[in-house]
Amino acid sequence: MFRSIRWKILLPFALLIILAMSLLGILLSNYVRQIYLEDLEDKQTAEALLIAEALKLAEVPTGIMIDLDDAASEWAKVLDARITIIAADGRVTGESHEDRAKMTNHLDRPEVQLAKAKGSGSSIRFSHTVGYHMMYTAIATYQDGQLSGFVRMAVPLNKIENKIYTLQMVITISILIFTLLAILLSIVISFRISQPLRELTRAVKGIFPGETVSTDMQYKGDEIAQLTHSFNAMSRQIETQIGEIESERARLASVLEKMTDGVLIVDEVGRVQLINPAAETMFGWHSGPVKGIPLVEVTQDYQSVELFRKCAQSGNSQSAKFELGNQKIHLQAAATQLGQSLPGYILLLFQDISRQVHVDNMRRDFISNVSHELRTPLAGIKALTETLQDGALEDPPAARRFLERIENEVDSLNLMVAELLELSRIESGKVPLEIIKTTVVDIIQPAFNRLHIQAERSEIEMDIDCPDNLPEILADANRLQQVIVNLLHNAIKYTPKGGKIILSARLVDQFVEFMVKDTGKGIPASDLPRIFERFYKIDRSRSSSGTGLGLAIARHLVDAHKGRIWAESEVGRGSIFRFTIPIA
Ligand code: ADP
Predict the structure, then answer these.
(1) Residues 6+ apart with CB under 8 A from 29
(2) For residue 450, how far is its CA from the centre of ligand 1 (angstroms)?
(3) 357-427 adopts what CATH topology?
(4) Span 5-164 CATH architecture
């Protein structure tokens, strides 16, 4: 408690005030007493001179003793004092209060000695006779320049002492009051001085950035006000800086949040310090805060740990490509030391390249498929031309047969090239669709008509089931006809004699759903998800039956109409192909 600045100011001040006031009190009361006594001495001297003058002591011849007791008593009554008249040799010649016979020679009395030496003198002594202090004042009387005797006055000091005591009491009380007031004042001053300091301390302890301390008008311009101002300025500066840091952090956090690449920051011993949502998703981390958890626990993947380890050991950036086993995600990963900004920390960056890998795989498949598909008809043509060269030309009917077969192979090559071209044009968006309001019948009927004969030839029954009241759809009629033709074409191709195909359409929510249903051989469930891929054929050995591009084209065209295409099938019982197109 006494350590506070308030007490540090207050205590010395209070002590100083008490000390100064006590000293002042003592000095003052002594001084007053002195003045009183001096006054009294002067008065007694004057009175003694008066008595001497009145008694004409000067005229009493030296050596002649006369009784002056009565005169002394008279004057004593008038002046209310004890009066002693002493001869020049010290014998008492007149006494107002005591029995003169018992009185000894008075020449040795200090006041008499002083009077003898200087003309007057006084002395204060305790009187055993009366029981209190008395003041004795004596003057010397002269005759013709010769000492003729002394007049001595004596008054008790108790009256004066009483007066002095009262005065001292007044002084003491006023000093006490002043001391109290001074202490109160220093309490107030010390409180007011320490008040802003306490506020400063509270604000600093609280560390509420931006909190300021009010400056008292009284301290305007003094050190405390300056300190307070400086503190307030510092507080505001800290607030601004914290604000900047906060917004910087928020920006960084939102960048990390929105990034599609996974980011991890790992400390030197391999504990994760930061992870962004993309990385959480990649590694399937759903267990809350990640700080301090080992990398291997977070990623559950040895390859990322290996990458981290290599980077930590070599001090150089490392990169690697790998597949996350359980998630089937292909990652391009990089590890970099964060250097001076965070010594020992390593930044791990993961980019999901699954799509790119998928595209690469598709391209590879595509090239091998195309070469494979081209090789078969080309090999056929080559064999036929060799047979012709080897002598079949000499046999005109056989030569014609071979030429027909060459023509067939060239046709299928043409078809494939045309379909490939078409597909690549659709995929690259180079086929502008003319999407307009179209009736469903305008799409279904022409497609049905185009394949009706072919179905009849294959002895397959083909029907349309389409209500009249269907709303118009948004479509490029020619392109949608092509989709239906492709589906019908497949249905005819994969349905045996005596089978049945139904082409229908119906309204489902905001879409018209088209359906091609056959009673053909069906599609195995394992193949169903893949039949819309380019070159995907279920029975690869029956290569001549198609290119594997028809459904891929159909899917692209339906996608371009913002619709959806899918298939359902049961092996041996038939297949159903459906696709939706939004209504106008
Ligand atoms: P393709 O030109 O070979 O018919 P598609 O892309 O049109 O190529 O079809 C891909 C594969 O899907 C075909 O090879 C075939 O095995 C299967 N398929 C398509 N439609 C049917 C269907 N209606 N019934 C049975 N299988 C079908």
Answers:
(1) 164, 167, 168, 171, 172
(2) 19
(3) Helix Hairpins (1.10.287)
(4) 2-Layer Sandwich (3.30)
